Amino acid sequence: MKAIRIALLIIVAIPIALGRAQDEASGVVISRDRGPDPAAIKLAPVASGFTRPLYVTHAADGSDRIFLVEQVGKIWILKDGLLLEQPFLDIGALISPGAVTQSFSEQGLLGLAFHPDFPTNGAFFINYTDLQGGTVVARYRVDFDNPERADASSGEILFQLSQPYANHNGGHIEFGPDGYLYIALGDGGSANDPLGAGQNRQLLLGSLLRIDIDGAAPYAIPPDNPFVGDASARAEIWAYGLRNVWRFSFDRATGDMYMADVGQNQWEEINFQPADSAGGENYGWNVWEGKHIFAGGNAPNHVPPIYEYSHSFGCSVTGGNIYRGEAIAELEAVYLFGDWCSGRIWGAWRDHELNWHADELMKTVLPISSFGEDEAGEIYVIDYGGKIYRFEPAV
Ligand SMILES: [Ca+2]
Predict the structure, then answer these.
(1) Which H or E run contains 17?
(2) Among residues 141, 215, 334, 365, which one has the fewest Cβ atoms lying within 10 Å of its Cβ?
(3) What is the 303 CA–ligand 1 centroid distance (Å)?
(4) Where are the domains of the chain?
(5) Distance 200 CA to ligand 1 centre (A)
(6) pLDDT tens, 367-393?
(7) CA of 237 to the centre of ligand 1 (A)
């Protein structure tokens, strides 16, 4: 993180010319005069032929490799623009069969995150639904004799939770700048949150968890988690009031977190959590759907989304990343996200008073299953139909 900040300090002179302003303390660009110009960007195809791709990420190991997650249980490596012949990992035998047999499913291999010390310890983590449909987070290690393959026998389950319904499994996992692993769990599924999981802090469902995978086996609770010592809540919970987070991400320059929570029938939302948050945010579900009362009732400490859109513009939000790459100056400090149904892609940005805005950047015809970042901070769009695209300058 420190190295990134120093690199950004060097280029602060350029953002000022382009109408962006940097945070005084860190030198990082956080606000803009205006939204990004849609005519300045395009999506360029990167790779194709995947089966239900759901995510791309990188190992932060200096290899520039892109790791691509297929819902059907495989992880592939794109290296120097080429797809390696053998998958990095194949856990097809461990996942819910519906992820393969049904025309659409929210089960299967859903998340991948590399340990911050992956270059030295070779550890990475996956989130999948198992043969019974329950959520599993497991630790694997790379094959030390072949860095392009995982050791398939190294799997070690750290976390398991049965799921009452097949949908709303969340599934995204990511390490925060604090080195802890964050795990998104949906409200358990069906519709309308029948378990009341969003507001029930004694249930892990409907929450974002934060665990320390290095502190103990299988994991430790970070001592500063917001509900440590609170008998009315589970200590793993970092934030709650969530319906089905489908992708969250940390701004690699600031540590702020962006989280997309899929709505019920009317409102899709983007939530923002500043890097200095102490946790405990209540994102409202199912008392609220977006900024609108849903079931009603009491939602203490409700944090409304920074942006919402109605189902006139889509039906299921797909969260992305804030752009910190170098290829497209026009996108700096823009949070890119999209919609699974409408194929629309938006860019959210802050003005100099730190008010949020979002502009539609393009309307694709893609079922957008995810966004993802490579090691250089360039951002990819995942087409569930099998293709991977990358944002590039239009000219
Ligand atoms: Ca909410």
Answers:
(1) helix 13-17
(2) 365
(3) 7
(4) 42-393
(5) 14
(6) 999 999 999 999 999 999 999 999 999
(7) 16
The count of C-alpha atoms lying within 13 angstroms of the C-alpha of 335, restricted to the half-sphere facing its C-beta, is 30
pLDDT digits (tens, 9 = 90+) for 68-116: 999 999 999 999 999 999 999 999 999 999 999 998 999 999 999 999 9
The CATH classification number of 42-393 equals 2.120.10.30
Confidence of residue 22 (pLDDT cuts 50, 70, 90): confident
- CB burial of residue 110 (10 Å; 0-12, 13-18, 19+): buried
Distance 307 CA to ligand 1 centre (A): 10
The encoded tokens of residue 122 equal: 């070779």
Quick one: tokens of 191?
A: 């519709």
Q: 56 alpha carbon to ligand 1 midpoint, in Å?
A: 26
| 33 C-alpha to ligand 1 centroid (Å) | 28
Distances (CA, A) of 78 to 36, 47, 378: 29, 8, 14
Helix, strand, coil percent values for the chain (each to nearest 5): 5, 40, 50
Taking ligand 1, which is a single-atom ion, which protein residues have CB atoms under 5 Å away? Answer: 283-284
State in Å: Cα 388 to ligand 1 middle. Answer: 29
Sign of CA dihedral 192, 195, 199, 203: negative
DSSP symbols for 216-268: SSS-B--TT-TTTT-TTS-TTEEEE--S-EEEEEE-TTT--EEEEE--SSSEE
